[in-house]
Amino acid sequence: MAAIKINHEKCTLCKLCIDACPFGAIEIRDEKLFINENCNLCGICVKTCPEGALSKEESVVSFADISSYKGIWFFAENRDDKLCPVAFEMLNAALQLKRDIGEDVAGILIGNNVKKFASELTARGADKVYVIEDSMLEHFQEETYASAMAQLIVKHKPNIVISAATMIGRAFIPAVAAKIRTGLTADCTDIGIDPETKLLVQTRPTFGGNLMAKIICRNHRPQMATIRPKMFEESSDVNNGQPDIIIEEFDKSSLLNNIAILKKERMQNTVVIQEAEVIVSGGRGVNDPKNFEMIRELADLLGGAVGASRAAVDSGWIPYPHQVGQTGRTVKPKIYIACGISGSIQHLAGMQTSDYIIAINKDPDAPIFRVANLGIVGDIFEVIPVLIKKIKEARKC
Length: 397
Ligand SMILES: Cc1cc2nc3c(=O)[nH]c(=O)nc-3n(C[C@H](O)[C@H](O)[C@H](O)COP(=O)(O)OP(=O)(O)OC[C@H]3O[C@@H](n4cnc5c(N)ncnc54)[C@H](O)[C@@H]3O)c2cc1C
Fold this sequence. Notes:
Bound molecules: flavin-adenine dinucleotide
CATH topology of the largest domain: Rossmann fold
Helix content: 25-40%
Shape: globular
CATH superfamily of the largest domain: HUPs
């Protein structure tokens, strides 16, 4: 693989390359020329430079190097001083890959005071845990987390690196892939190993969700993917013995460090429906944005979150983060209540693995009833108010 190299001694900072680059990939940082992640190696800058300070170098990772990459890594996401459930989902996904390629599974802990989580990971099947702790990593920032992860990868050369496609994973894992110049398949719905080539097969929707693409990364390492939450069960307790913990110093030398966290505040009305144990979802049958109040009241009473079909979102009745389905969120709550939702294949793709599905629909032939554990044929404007009343009455007892 190629890279643009800068000879800083020859570079006069004339900026001709900056003007010539069609991708805005060249900038000046700390009074030095810098190639950023927009670079697609077109080589125009090399031809433009009058001093010969730029060159295109091949083979950052050669084919021969690939065999030296071993191990299946997962990013063990932690927030609010605890491991997130997605950390155990990724661990389980990694363990499934291990069955096919037999390589060790390692968890990656990044943060401040996070070493304490290592034994939880090994107790659930991780062979080892790499830890980078630093006060600079206390709060998530793309730059610092990407640097820490890239540093570990460059040193220990894993074969596969996976992370949940959460807000955090989606934010920094692409930067890691760009830093180490490998590929990344984002937002996968499944991963597995090709039996012949032993390559990671990464499955994700494409063409607006109309096709499922299977993607492999043949020539570069590590093979990297982010995976939608709830596509894998959490790993269970296996008591893997003593934790093998590898602690690494955080190398801050290449950080720009131009962000200071002044204050951290939890945003009001943030929607994290993937983590809710109960979801009450409304579809086109809700008929009007103000009727979502009824859906919200039921969800609140059950300590749950509000979901929606794409029809409701597209109608502007509720914002996109609530959308469940192929082009929305994938959820797996303990209880999913579908209200006025027909049950299209695209909606089912995002919720059909929920533990218990209740459907309320006035059409007895609605496809949602085929996946429902409990189906109520009726008008939501009659059924939901009764449910709300009964729950309130029961709470008073
Ligand atoms: C590429 C692609 C991606 C997509 N991604 C998604 C996605 O992520 N999520 C998603 O949801 N959809 C998605 N869709 C859209 C999907 O195909 C459906 O159009 C959509 O799910 C329909 O939403 P709905 O069930 O709310 O509406 P409808 O299909 O119109 O169903 C409304 C239902 O409400 C019932 N109803 C009406 N009034 C009442 C009442 N008063 N009481 C009880 N029941 C009532 C009706 O009987 C009907 O079954 C996608 C489509 C495509 C092509």
